[in-house]
Amino acid sequence: MKKTILAVAFMAVAMVSCQDKTKTEVDEAATAIGTEAEATTETVGEAIDSTAGEVKEDVKDGVEAGAEKVEEGAKEVKEAVK
Length: 82
Description:
By secondary structure, this protein is an all-alpha fold. It is built from one helix and no strands. It is rod-shaped and about 120 Å long. The termini are far apart.
């Protein structure tokens, strides 16, 4: 009978200590996930800013190239009219 009571008491202590350890591990994991999510958000924000800058430059270059072609076309028309 003593062995049964001691075994039940030991199991109860083991379960309680495991719960504390599990709770600590869950808290640590949640903190790590939050930190990782924050870092990822910052990285995505930087990538968006970088891409927006590249698109802006590409559009600017395209507009300049288009303007040059329009000017060339206008010169050709002007020459053809003479």
